[in-house]
Design goal:
Order of helices and strands: HHHHHHHHHHHHHHHHH
Strand content: under 5%
Largest sheet: none
Low-confidence stretches: 24-38
Number of strands: 0
Radius of gyration: 24 Å
Shape: globular
């Protein structure tokens, strides 16, 4: 009898241990899943993969075409498609879509989904119409977009831009579904998309360029935009519901465009700045646009891997906290994330400044990319590293305002900073291409100071704790 009771007791203990182990295992699995798919680490890892493939992309481009006028034309052809994408898609997703979609998810999934497809339908329709008009009237615009290109180079530029105008339409759908993935913290499917985009460009260089030249790379870029969308659409639809075309002007539509308007001026000013840098570089020696673009790609790596990844992962949380009026927690997260961004990006900037020449030489040196090209890119990059922590901090401070649904202030501040940057680069253009990163850093410093003052004012005066 005693033995029977002991056996029964042992079985009970074993059963409890098994249950506890299973529970811990399942909980551990959930934690790992959250870490790998739904955290800032997810965005950092996927951004890192994107940059690995981005460097492969840049290497095959420079090895194939060198720092040449052809490559200048390819990089310059991004200006107009990027303006369309930024003004009508990035503004909507960053300034309105995530915040409003998150707010609606708290009350009704159906309303959130209807809102999403209505805005997507309106914006994509506007984009298609504008892309067609730009393609038609592009020959009249070229003198404002590029400088000192020959007639044959200008004709090639027009052809490539017309091909590239397909990409913002594909990116519109991809970035809208990406906004839903950010709002629902599905960071893996959001972050992996740029990897496929770069694969499309690499495909264009290896498979299409031998037949079509630089036009083949442009076709590969459009194919990459399609892959970008394909990698997000399945998970995006699972969160946003069955796709439907809706073109209704509702209260939420009006609210979206009201929030977008200040951001349109901000993003528009940013795109004007990028156009200005390309225009400025195109007036300099052959290959200057390529040198600027390659150095900028290096500079943007830690900004994306660290600054934007942390800001994006915090944005959804900040939007939810703002909606629930939990401003004490809101302020705490902003402080922690800002400090983390500054520490990590400053370290990255120091590493790039000292090891830039070695990195550029290893990644791009050889073939059509000579020692002089390595020197030009690495010197420009060394100056560009000053702006890494500044640009990274700008992203979290800007998204802090968006989460509070205050888009006017950061837009005005952004425009002021960009005007300062353009004026400095114009007044001191005698410094050559090196004035681009110098003026950029000065403008970002002014922007961060003003954004921080604005944030402190909003928290202390407009919201109760």
């Amino acid at each position: 009898m005693i033995i029977h009771k002991k056996i029964k007791m042992i079985k009970k203990v074993v059963s409890e241990v098994k249950l506890k182990f299973r529970k811990n295992f399942e909980e551990s699995g959930k934690n790992y899943k959250k870490l790998l798919f739904h955290s800032a680490l997810t965005l950092t890892i996927t951004s890192g993969l994107s940059y690995v493939f981005g460097f492969v992309r840049d290497r095959v481009l420079t090895q194939t075409f060198g720092v040449s006028r052809e490559l200048d034309i390819y990089y310059a052809s991004f200006v107009l498609p990027d303006i369309l994408l930024a003004v009508f898609v990035t503004t909507c997703v960053s300034a309105a879509l995530v915040a409003i979609f998150s707010e609606k998810l708290n009350t009704s999934k159906q309303e959130a989904r209807e809102y999403f497809y209505n805005i997507l339908s309106i914006v994509s329709t506007i984009l298609i119409i504008l892309a067609i008009l730009i393609a038609i009237f592009l020959p009249l615009l070229t003198r404002f977009l590029i400088k000192d290109f020959s007639q044959s180079d200008t004709e090639l530029y027009i052809t490539i831009v017309r091909i590239m105008l397909l990409s913002p339409i594909l990116f519109a759908f991809s970035n809208f579904f990406g906004g839903v993935l950010i709002a629902t913290k599905e960071f893996f499917f959001y972050g992996i998309a740029p990897v496929f985009y770069n694969l499309g460009i690499i495909f264009g260089v290896f498979v299409l360029a031998p037949v079509f030249g630089i036009k083949g790379v442009a076709i590969g870029t459009v194919f990459g935009a399609f892959l970008h969308l394909a990698s997000r659409i399945y998970k995006g639809i699972s969160k946003a519901g069955t796709p439907k075309v809706k073109l209704k002007w509702t209260h939420d539509t009006q609210k979206t465009f009201k929030l977008m308007i200040p951001k349109i001026f901000q993003i528009g000013a940013w795109q004007i700045l990028l156009w200005w840098f390309v225009y400025l570089a195109s007036s300099m020696s052959e290959g200057s646009v390529s040198v600027y673009s390659i150095a900028r790609n290096f500079q943007s790596m830690p900004v994306s891997l660290i600054g934007i990844s942390i800001a994006l992962s915090a944005f959804a949380t900040l939007a939810h906290l703002s909606a629930s009026k939990n401003m004490l927690k809101f302020r705490e997260i902003v402080k922690k994330k800002s400090i983390l961004i500054v520490i990590l990006t400053s370290g990255s900037a120091i590493v790039l400044a000292f090891l830039g020449k070695l990195i550029v030489s290893v990644l791009f040196g050889g073939g059509s990319f000579g020692a002089d090209d390595v020197q030009r890119v690495s010197t420009l990059l060394a100056i560009y590293t000053i702006s890494i922590p500044l640009e990274s901090l700008m992203h979290i401070l800007t998204r802090t305002h968006y989460a509070l649904q205050k888009t006017f202030r950061p837009s005005v501040i952004h425009i002021i900073a960009i005007l300062i940057t353009i004026v400095i680069s114009w007044c001191f253009k005698g410094f050559g291409i090196y004035i681009i990163p110098i003026s950029f850093a000065v403008g970002l410093l002014v922007q961060n100071v003003l954004l921080y003052i604005s944030y402190i004012y909003l928290i202390s005066k407009k919201y109760e704790f």
